Every structure is written in C-alpha cells, then in structure tokens.
Amino acid sequence: MNCKKILILGGDKRIVSLANNFNRDGFDVVTYGFSEDIDFDGGIVRAANLKDALSGRDVVISGLPVTVDDVTLHTPLYEDKIYLYDVLKLMTKEQLFVGGRITPKVKNLCGIYNISVTDYFEREELTVANAVPTAEGAIELAMNLLPVTVWGSKSLVLGFGRIGKILSSRLNALGAETYVEARKFSDLAWIDAYGYTGIPLNNLKGSLPQFDVIYNTVPHEILTDDMLKLVRRDCLIIDLASAPGGVDIEKAARYGIKVVHALSLPGKVAPETAGEIIKDTILNIFADMGV
Amino acid sequence: MNCKKILILGGDKRIVSLANNFNRDGFDVVTYGFSEDIDFDGGIVRAANLKDALSGRDVVISGLPVTVDDVTLHTPLYEDKIYLYDVLKLMTKEQLFVGGRITPKVKNLCGIYNISVTDYFEREELTVANAVPTAEGAIELAMNLLPVTVWGSKSLVLGFGRIGKILSSRLNALGAETYVEARKFSDLAWIDAYGYTGIPLNNLKGSLPQFDVIYNTVPHEILTDDMLKLVRRDCLIIDLASAPGGVDIEKAARYGIKVVHALSLPGKVAPETAGEIIKDTILNIFADMGV
Amino acid sequence: MNCKKILILGGDKRIVSLANNFNRDGFDVVTYGFSEDIDFDGGIVRAANLKDALSGRDVVISGLPVTVDDVTLHTPLYEDKIYLYDVLKLMTKEQLFVGGRITPKVKNLCGIYNISVTDYFEREELTVANAVPTAEGAIELAMNLLPVTVWGSKSLVLGFGRIGKILSSRLNALGAETYVEARKFSDLAWIDAYGYTGIPLNNLKGSLPQFDVIYNTVPHEILTDDMLKLVRRDCLIIDLASAPGGVDIEKAARYGIKVVHALSLPGKVAPETAGEIIKDTILNIFADMGV
Amino acid sequence: MNCKKILILGGDKRIVSLANNFNRDGFDVVTYGFSEDIDFDGGIVRAANLKDALSGRDVVISGLPVTVDDVTLHTPLYEDKIYLYDVLKLMTKEQLFVGGRITPKVKNLCGIYNISVTDYFEREELTVANAVPTAEGAIELAMNLLPVTVWGSKSLVLGFGRIGKILSSRLNALGAETYVEARKFSDLAWIDAYGYTGIPLNNLKGSLPQFDVIYNTVPHEILTDDMLKLVRRDCLIIDLASAPGGVDIEKAARYGIKVVHALSLPGKVAPETAGEIIKDTILNIFADMGV
To answer: Between B176 and which of B22, B171, C133, D177 could a Cys-Cys bridge form, CB atoms 3.0 to 4.6 Å apart?
Structure first.
C-alpha cells in the first residue's frame, strides 16, 4: 500500500488546513464535501462527485467528529449531505478510512463493509499536542476577561493532567503566581520541580480566597458548594473540562462568581495549528502501519 | 508634610483602581469627579463639592491624561466639568498636584498659582512597568487574530526597547520562534544572551517572508515599501508604537497585509494593573521627595 | 500512634540533614549511630546506647541504603557496627521501621520480628524529587568539563523519563539548544509542547555528529557501536543511568570519546536537599498511614 | 582593504579558539607566538618567524590582555618573547592591530609607528556577551559549593547591571527564589517585570538573614560590616566584581562567612565560547570599519 493518495472528505476549518498541510508535504490530495467558496491551496484537486473522489485513493480522511447523526458525515462547510453508507459502499478493502471521534455505530458499519478504519482522536499524541492550543485559548480568555494582567495574577490550576501540565508551564512563563491543585504526592513533586506551588486537595479550601483566576481541568466537581463560598466574587473561573464540565455554573452564580465554560478550544482559537496536529497524528498512524 | 491624605480628582477606570489601591494601603482617600454609580471600596469618602474635596488633603491626584483641552480636567466618568482654574485657585502651596501627561500650559498655570506639580507619566519606572500589560495586550491580539498558536509561530519583534524586551521574553516563554530586529551590536548580544534570534537591520529584508506575525515597537517606519512587498499576505502586523505608529497601514493594505494599530493597551486590557502601576509610581515620587 | 518521636539510626550526610530537618519541623528527634564529631542542630538528643535510642520512639529511620551486607545497618559516619538483629529484637510492634532500598532479606527479618517496615526509596514522589538534584549535578558536570557554555551548546538528552524531563527543562532554560530522543509519539508531542526538539529513535543516528554534549538517562545501550562512530570526538557523554549505566565506556574510548558515569548525584551534589526530599517523603508515608 | 588575511599573534586558550573560529569561517589564518604542541585546526598556517608572520596580513590580532609589561606581547602559550617594538616596526600602515585591554602606552607606541589600533575589549557587545559565561561560572560555583540545589535556594543578586541581569535570568530559570538588589526605581520595575523579587537598597539589611547564597556584581562595598553581621554563617558569597572585588573577605571571615572571589570566569570556564565572543566582536569591528 502506498499512502501518497489522500481524499479529504468534508470537515471544518481544521480539515481545510489539514488538506493544505498534506499538500504542502507533497501528498497527492483530492477533496470532496466542501462548498465552492472554500479556498484550498494550489495543487489540491476538487472531485466532481463522490465516486471520482474515492477512486484510486489510498486513504480517506473525514472530519472531526466524523458524524453527529451516525448517518451522514459531518460536513459543516458543505451545503449537501454525504451518506456514510454511500462512502463505505464505494470504498475497497485496500483503502483506509481515517476519522476523529468515530462512533461505535460507524466502526460497526466499517466492519460490515470490511473497511479498515482508524480514529486519530484516540491517539495519545494528539491529545497531548492539543493541550497547547487549549492552554493558549484559556490564557487568551483570562487576558480578555481579567482587569489585571496574567503576569502577577494569583492563578490556580485544578488538576495536573495534560492540560494542567501545559497550562501551568505557560502561566508560570508569563509571570503568574502559579498554584496547582493535585492529589497524588508524585504530581505534587513534579509541580515543585517545575517551580509552581503545589496545593494538595486537603489544603485547597483554605487557599481559595487568594485567587484572581481559577482554571479547572478536572472533569468532575472539585469546587463544591462550601469551596465556592470561599472563592472571591471577582475571581474568574475558566472551566476547561469537556462537557458537562467540572464547575457548577449555577451554584457559582449564586455566589456572584463568573464561570466561563470553554469547549473545543483548539479548533476555535487555532484551526491551522489544530489541522497540523491532526496531520502529524495521521502520519504517525501511517508510520505505525508501516506504510 | 504628611502624605497620608489623598484626593483622587477624576479619571478613568485606572484611576478608580488607583483610589482603591491607596485605600487598601491604608491611605486616607477622598474622591471627587466621578459619577454616583462608580463603585469605590469601603472606606473611601466622596466629597460633596470641590472645596470640601480639596480641604485638608496633602496630595491631589488627577487622571491620565490630566486634561485634553487645557481648560478642564479629564473626567470621563463624570457628567460635570471641573475647571483646572477652580482647582488651582482652591489649592494651597502646601499641597502637591500629581497627574499624568501634564501639558506645558497646565505646568505654567501651576507656576502662576505657586502649586507644586509632578507628572507620574514621565517616570521611567512607570514606562517600564507598563511594558508588561502592553506585551500581554499584544499577545492577546495575536492569539485572537492568528489561525495558529503563538507557540511555534514565527514571530518578529521590531525594536529592542522596553516593550521589545518584555514582549520578546513573553513570546519566547510561550514557545514562539522569537526573532528580534535591532541595530546596535550590543542589543544583538543581549538578544542572543536571552535566547532569542537577533536580526541586524541589514539582514531584515531577506528574513521577512518567513514570519507569521510581526510586532512593531519602533515609532518610525522600518517596514518600507520594498520590505512590505516581502511580507507574507497572511502575516499579521501588530503595531505597538504610539500614534501615529510605525507601520503604514495603507501601504500594507495594498499588499493585502493586515495591520492592527494597538494603542494605550495597559488601560484597556488591564485597568487594575495599570492603576497599581500608577500607585507604585506615586509612592516612589513620595519617597524621592522624602515624604 | 503519635508520630512525633523519631529515632535517626545511622546514615550519611543526607541522613544528618534529615535529622536536622525533622528537628526544625518540631519533631522530637533522637540520634544513634553517628560519630561524636558529627554536628547536629540544637535540640537533637544523642542516645547513649541502642536500647535507650529505641526506647519510646514511634518511628525508627535508618540510612540510604539501609544495609549493604544484610547483617549490619549502613552507618558510614560511625566507627562501630549496629546489627540489624539487635535493632529488630529491641523494637516493639507499635514502632515503625523506615529505610531506603530495603533488601528482601531485611523485609523478611522484619516479618519474623513482627515489625512494620516501609521503604521511602520506593515512593514515586522521591524519585521525581531526586530528578532535580540529579539534573543539576549533570549540568554542573557539563559546565565543568565543556570548553563551551551550556548556553548555546548543542545538547542531546537520551530518554524522556523523570530525569530526562527535568534535565531538558533546565537545559532549555539555560539557553542550550535542547534535543531529546524518545520513542513514543506521545513523548515526542510533550517534547514539542515544552519547546525542545524531539528526535525519534529512528532519526537519532543522522543527528549525532552535531552534538557538543549527550546526556544519557536510559538504563540500556542506545548508543551502539555504529552510533558512537558518528559522535564527535570532542563531544562529552554524561551517563546518568544507574549502574551499570547505558553507555559502553570502553567502546566510546576506542573512538576517543569521553564518558562520565555520574552515579547517586543527589547525595553528592546536594546532601541537604536530598535530606529534605527524604523528610518530605517520610511525612507523606505518615499521611498515607493516617498518623 | 580586504580583511580576509589574519595573523593571530600569541595569547591564551581563548585566542587558540579564536584562530580556529576564524579558520572555520573561511578566513586565511596564520599564527605565531604559540608553542609547537598547541593544536590548531587544519588549514591554519604557523609562521616560521615574526617577519613571515606579519607579511601580507591585513589584520594582526593579539591576546587578552595584549601585554602585562608594556614591552612584550602577552604570550602565555609560548616559550619565547615577542617584543611589541619588533611587531610595530615590521607592520605597515595598511595593517590593522587589534587587541584586548590595550594600555595607553601601547596605544601611544602605535601612534608613533603610525599603526591603526583598536581594542575589542572596549566594545559593549563583548561585555554583554561575556556576561553569559560569567553567569554560568557563578552558577557552577554555587552548584559545587552549596549543600543544597540552586533550585529552591534563596538567592540574592547584588546589582542589576549586565551580569546581574543575565545571572538573575538563569537563577530564576533554574528554579531559585531569585531576589535582586537595585537602587533605581526603574531597575526595580524591570526586576518585577522579569518575575524576580526586587529589593531596594533601603530594605536590603532586613532581608539578609534568609539567603543561602549571595552573588555580588557591584564593584564597591555594599555588604558593610553591619550588613555582614546579618548574613547567615552557612551562606555562600560569590563575588563577581572585578578586582579588588566588592566584598571584604576578611570582614566576612570574622563572621564565619565564606566568600569566593571569582575573576575572569569566561576564559576559565568556557574558553571556546570566550574565543567565539571575541571573534564576533572583531567581525563587528570590521563591519563598523566597512571592511
């Protein structure tokens, strides 16, 4: 199998950037599922119809997420519909289907049609790389919404997973007084070694009144009612945990505290970087497959 | 002279924050020249009229700028007018008048009324400190307007004065590929020592096509027509030089390049930090006067 | 159980610092197994004999390693011998025995005497925290042995485990051109996100001739003969992998390359920090036991 | 004048490295005034005698310092003597004489012989660039002599000139708690902006007992007797001010405090980097002369 021939089959701005990225790297790129006014770089070919699009391609790359209804592909930049069924029917078993957030139903369907399928959104390196635009998006929000600079601000990061790690490194680099809540002793040792101030969950409560801004990265509720009571009213809470988030916005509102729930930042704040991250991940998938 | 009794006489959000800051530090603070709906912290007294406001105060602090018409104080958060003439007439020579961007005419008027006057905006430490919110404001703009992250972006800073120094340190800390244009060999040595890449003015032209974003801090035109020609169309130029700026917006537009002229960022992006910077500077003025 | 009464039972400089640290934190500290000329801080009591030493103590803390012969405690700062057998015989089952690198034989013996035993050297947070003095020790070696500054030096770190992570953050902060070899795509994504340059193992060979210094943190041979052939003769290799190390010193010598095998750096370069790390870890052990 | 033909005329290791550097950059390099066992890179020619050495050269570069006796060149790696008089007599007025720390007497002599002369050691960019190896040398000393890591150490830098600026940036990057003493309000604003803690000279005294290490960069006595009294006995003082230094070693000894006077660190800790800095500076001299 020679992986040079790629079909980009619908998607948002990130996927447009993905197409341009593959093209720039010398891949043979065909697109389908984008409205006419979407500008691709020179060298990229628009297919006239789905059959032409799929013909002769080694890899078919669809959007992020692949689908929202389990029936059609997610093609926000296209006025028509592309049915998954139609795509899989036309594919051959030599072709690879690649997408992000592939649902069990789609996986199942691929199985039925005997099509190899792989999900780039499940790759650890993509999640790590996405922490960079997520952290920047969070900082942009703080810069925009706070009446003080990030420099010198008393900043608390809840959680020391991927986003917590990158976010605290950036806050510290910008001169924020960076505090990070973590439960594991080893995480607290890392926090110390990187020069931030660790706060064990036990000590969190007493420390809360000092903060100008709190970044939550934990997908469950850490800031319980008796915690929120201690947060300053002029403190901004930026919740970065994926839906439904980790901070109860209504509870916080009762104490007059503003919460911003920031979702899917990479695609919003840096679609080109997001596209490049997806490309790098797909190249890794190729490498792992030995193609 | 005992400097504990302060009158805050009009001004914008920064000056409101300044009043709160002095109050928090234990100073006796009276305000005048703000509309009723402006919230000051507890302990701050609103004077009923100008005469009461000035009575018994050691220092009279006005806004930034002090005036825009040389006749009235600049009081953007007040519905009425306060005439400079009225203020100076009511002041005694034991009182100190402090303001920002004091015009020659105002200085002159103070001389006539025998009032000591000092300008905090002329202090070097304020200009240095203001480089921090300015740099953050510039980065916020870049994060907002660029389709890529600041991390990994090819970033050029024109000039290595106060803003250039702080801005390049922040860009580098965020993981941008940080290039700095400077003319002096010693500045290029500093740039090197701090880990950025120096570009002598001579070599600037050839380096231009690579940049995703250019931050100008130089108050005259460096990017001449034959330079702009080489800048990529998708490059963002953020001009931080004070009015009229250092980048010709129309010339750039002819090449399809977007220029944002960002002025007075500290007051806009971080009024509280700006207020604190002014307070620190005024405390230094007191220290220098031995009061 | 009340953990305030501690016996420090022999050990090197780190353990002396450990005793002082516990004393400073308000613990009741008795020592035994140190020569008379070892200076402890005021408030620390020297026991006259082993029986007195153990009497009434809640916790018995011995050195690192606990023993090198499985018969006596490791007491490098003491002229006499302390037999493990004697210690365990005198202990009660209410007392806790704490040590570093406890051998299976010692664990077994504790079981026979029904003594609770725990090893601080097995704790993840200690290993993480020790990466800091290890990284500094490696940098001190490089500063000492290289004819160039660390700043600007082309530096390669082999491996991105605990030491690799901290070491690369320090090298980067000092202005070295920091390259990190890693195998996992997710590690390469972290390396990228932190601003270093990742080198997949596949690409290592071709990159080798450029380096001024190579830091190995991997406990097996990565630099095979055909790799070493490509390393410059004036390149310094610092091997940080625990014995027997990961670089073949003799093979390297055949190519004229200098290898320094740096072992147990924390205790050598920063015994007080090492002592503090052990104290923090033992406090965590107490916390985990709920004492 | 064509500057490609260079004579390197005696000097220490830095100057050997300087010769290799020019050679690597493609200059035509001849050497004289070095013992036979000094290894130069291939392509560099050793002259048989002084006359041959000087013949046809555009630039004559001597050591650092040029001379210590005003009679002979400073040639520490040479067994014979080279008389300044002999050199100048053989030079023509088309040739340029370049050296470091040129004495008034030598300058005078050049005038008499009508030889153009320039001192690279007077160039600001060299002084700035040398701050990098100086700061590293100071940190290496601290790493070597302190029983704690630089990370987490309470570190005070006296003075915020060139060395103070670079040193505090490195200490901060390594995770030291970095305090910097300065007198000017604007310097304190810079210190703040870069994220270190500023200490105005007025407040220095009270802050002294907390420090693990003090780096002095000020060439006069700041740590007076009543200051030293407050420094902890286990505090290490590293004096980086040029001879006679800024810390009174005997006074400090009376209080049991260790002082290390570290002189001429660039040549000692990083001769190759030092040689490269000199080369860059000489290239700047050529550029300024338009050659």
So the answer is: B171
Judge contact between D193 and B128, C-beta under 8 A. yes
Nearest to A93 by CA among A76, A112, A78, A108: A112
For C3-15, how does the pLDDT look when each residue is reduced to its tens digit (9 = 90+)? Answer: 589 999 999 999 9
What is d(CA D62, CA D54) in angstroms, rounded to the nearest whole number? 12
What does the H/E/C string look like for chain C? CCCCEEEEECCCHHHHHHHHHHHHCCCEEEEECCCCCCCCCCCCEECCCHHHHHCCCCEEEECCCCCCCCCECCCCCCCCCCEHHHHHHHCCCCCEEEECCCCHHHHHHHHHCCCEEEEHHHCHHHHHHHHHHHHHHHHHHHHHHCCCCCCCCEEEEECCCHHHHHHHHHHHHCCCEEEEEECCHHHHHHHHHCCCEEEEHHHHHHHHHHCCEEEECCCCCCCCHHHHCCCCCCCEEEECCCCCCCCCHHHHHHCCCEEEECCCHHHHHCHHHHHHHHHHHHHHHHHHHCC
How would you classify residue A287: left for phi > 0, otherwise alpha for psi between -120 and 50, otherwise beta? alpha
Of D175, D193, D194, the CB nearest to A195: D175
> In angstroms, what CA-CA distances link B148 with A23, A143, A183, C276?
18, 18, 34, 43
A8 vs chain C: nearest CA distance in angstroms? 24
pLDDT in tens, B3-30: 589 999 999 999 999 999 999 999 999 9
Low-confidence ranges of chain D (pLDDT < 50): 1-2
Quote the longest CA-to-CA distance of chain D.
Answer: 64
* Half-sphere CA count of D270, side-chain side, radius 13 A: 28
Q: Could you give the CA distance from residue C109 to residue C103 in angstroms, rounded to a whole number? A: 10
Question: What is the structure's pLDDT at C145?
Answer: 97
Q: pLDDT (tens digit, 9 = 90+) per residue, C122-163?
A: 999 999 999 999 999 999 999 999 999 999 999 999 999 999
Nearest to B175 among C151, C175, C195 (CB): C195
Give how far Cα A221 sits from Cα of A158, A160, A217, A239, A242, Å: 10, 15, 10, 11, 12
In chain C, residues with a C-beta closer than 8 Å to the C-beta of A131 are 193
Residues 6+ apart with CB under 8 A from A194: A168, A169, A172, C169, D175
pTM of the model: 0.95
Nearest CA in chain D to C151: D132
What is d(CA D276, CA D291) in angstroms, rounded to the nearest whole number?
Answer: 20
CB B273 within 8 A of CB B267: no
Residues 6+ apart with CB under 8 A from A47: A7, A30, A31, A32, A53
Best mutation target among A124, A126, A127, A128 (most C Cβ atoms within 10 Å) is A128
Domains observed in chain C:
5-122 (3.40.50.720), 127-267 (3.40.50.720)
B201-257 per-position pLDDT tens digit: 999 999 999 999 999 999 999 999 999 999 999 999 999 998 888 999 999 999 999
Q: Has residue B1 got a pLDDT over 80?
A: no
- D-proximal residues of C, 93-152, CB under 8 Å: 132-133, 136-137, 139-140, 143-144, 146-152
Edge-first strand order for the sheet with A213-216 is: A197-200, A177-182, A154-158, A213-216, A236-239, A258-261
What's the CA gap between A27 and A213, in Å, rounded?
45
Low-confidence ranges of chain A (pLDDT < 70): 1-3, 291
Of the partner residues B140, B174, B271, the one whose CB lies closest to the CB of residue A144: B140
Task: Measure the CA–CA gap between C205 and D212, rounded to whole angstroms.
Answer: 43
